[in-house]
Design goal:
about 525 residues; mainly alpha; 27 helices; globular
Length: about 525
């Protein structure tokens, strides 16, 4: 009888009850109705136990870092940086919008923050330059879904915690799919440019740029360190492929790479204008945030939770002391906003852990697994069908609650038929993230409507070509696991046995008894 909590949960959800209360009331009521008062106490105790977690602390810290960077005026710098690189392409401001979303994703990890921050800047600018308001709002909403895919990602932290997966592995697995979504949207804009007569190309570089001395020298140093690190990574990979692993100290080699990095930058310097150089230098310091997060995790000096606290500290240093764009009075307001958002998300996660307990004890997961596996024995067909289900769910439910509700039910089913847990996590996360921009209930559509003062229905029609691109990307990462799994495999975050091959690691097949 306890299994009836699922239909009750759906009914409560459909009448408009907030998700967190539906997650607790439905299983709580059925537990009480079946006379299992002891399980009822365990249910509500798990709400606190679900929140009391060190890895989960990464979530509020990444939210705080994003708020600090956004309030500190980082958005304007990212847009100027993107304009300098992409403004000369046909449909330039639309391309700028997409590139800005890719860059902003490495700072906030939130689609809503992306739409709000970039939309308020780029939608008026695009309309002023000849784009229709509905097109500007649509491309802003469509590109904002990149935010939760490229790390840091709030929904991936939630998935990793609820399902017991590695946050670092999910972060790394999201890099290529996020970039692929961005590239796909850029290609679509280019295809639409001639047909819809998008505005002519024009490189936009703000004239007479100035930069503070401390920021100038920081950018000077960081550019050389970043390029040296890139040269070291590429050379190490090539040497390993052709001659075997390096036998020398990696730090010494990386330090030696600073000299060629400096020479390359000097050569580039003579080919661009002073204003272009200044715009690029003003984007260097803010864009270190994702490099610090991923770099620290990859080289093993920090966990994702520790990386989130470093991100907050770096965001404060940049905004308060380097850019001087954030006052301490602003910071208290940022703390308040971050605390309210974090409290809502953490309460939802705690309720989800309690909900997961009832799912496990009621036998609901087994029943649903039998139904799904009864549809077909072919894993590819099941993956196709589950993508359709997730896409429909994403139309009506936000990504976080959907992951919390469906993850514990669907994850084990697909792991049992041979899908790697990290691969399924990315399939689910990307699919439900795209749902944020999908009518009729996509949250970023409403945010874009508010920012642009355009009707949601109008934006929904204009966004359809971009949604088609994102759906194609979803199926690509579903049926080609190498797209999402190669980076975490190379970084050795998948936990594969040393003697297992590449394909056996990323697509292990059904477990054998």
């Amino acid at each position: 009888m306890l299994i009836w909590f699922l239909p009750l949960f759906l009914v409560i959800l459909m009448i408009g009850t907030p998700v967190v209360f539906a997650l607790l009331f439905a299983p709580g009521f059925m537990t009480w109705a079946t006379g299992n008062e002891r399980d009822l106490a365990i249910l509500y105790r798990n709400v606190y136990n679900g929140i009391d977690s060190f890895p989960l602390m990464a979530l509020p810290f990444f939210m705080l870092a994003g708020e600090v960077m956004n309030r500190g005026g980082i958005t304007t710098r990212l847009v100027e940086f993107s304009q300098a690189f992409m403004g000369h392409l046909r449909g330039g401001l639309a391309q700028v919008n997409i590139l800005s979303s890719i860059l902003f994703a490495g700072l906030s990890g939130s689609a809503v923050a992306d739409t709000s921050a970039l939309g308020s800047t780029l939608i008026p600018a695009m309309e002023k330059n000849g784009y229709s308001r509905k097109f500007a709002a649509a491309i802003t909403a469509a590109s904002s879904v990149i935010g939760p895919i490229i790390p840091p990602s709030g929904i991936m932290i939630i998935y990793a915690y609820v399902m017991g997966e590695s946050v670092a592995a999910l972060f790394l697995a999201g890099i290529v799919p996020g970039i692929l979504v961005g590239v796909g949207l850029m290609v679509m804009v280019r295809l639409m440019a001639d047909r819809y007569d998008l505005p002519k190309a024009e490189r936009i570089v703000t004239k007479n740029q100035t930069i503070a001395p401390i920021e100038y020298w920081l950018s000077f140093l960081l550019l050389r360190i970043n390029l040296a690190g890139l040269l070291y990574a590429v050379s190490s990979l090539l040497i390993t492929l052709f001659t075997g692993p390096l036998e020398v100290n990696g730090w010494i080699v990386a330090l030696c790479m600073v000299i060629p990095a400096h020479l390359i930058l000097v050569a580039i310097r003579s080919r661009v204008s002073a204003d272009f150089r200044t715009v690029c230098k003003k984007g260097v310091v803010p864009l270190q945030t994702p490099i610090i997060i991923l770099g620290g995790i990859l080289i093993g000096v920090m966990t994702p939770t520790e990386a989130s606290t470093i991100a907050v500290a770096y965001a404060l240093l940049v905004s308060v002391f380097v850019l001087r764009s954030l006052t301490w009075a602003d910071f208290f307001d940022v703390l308040q906003r971050s605390a309210l958002t974090s409290a809502a998300v953490l309460l939802l996660v705690g309720a989800a852990v309690a909900f997961k307990t009832i799912v496990a004890t009621s036998g609901a997961a087994t029943t649903i697994a039998d139904v799904i596996l009864g549809l077909s024995e072919n894993p590819l067909i099941l993956l196709f069908l589950i993508n359709i289900l997730l896409f429909v769910v994403g139309m009506f439910l936000d990504a976080g609650p959907a992951i919390i509700i469906l993850g514990p039910i669907l994850g084990p089913i697909f792991t049992d038929i041979g899908v790697h847990p990290v691969h399924f996590a990315i399939i689910m996360s990307v699919n439900l993230t795209v749902g944020l921009a999908t009518p009729p209930m996509g949250l970023v559509l409403f945010v874009a409507s508010t920012v642009s003062r355009e009707k949601v229905e109008t934006i929904a029609w204009a966004i359809l070509p971009f949604l088609a691109v994102e759906v194609i990307v979803i199926f690509l990462i579903t049926f080609i696991p190498q797209i999402s799994m190669t980076v975490p495999y190379l970084a050795d975050f998948l936990g594969c046995p040393p003697d297992s091959g590449y394909m056996a690691c990323i697509s292990p097949g059904p477990p054998t008894n």
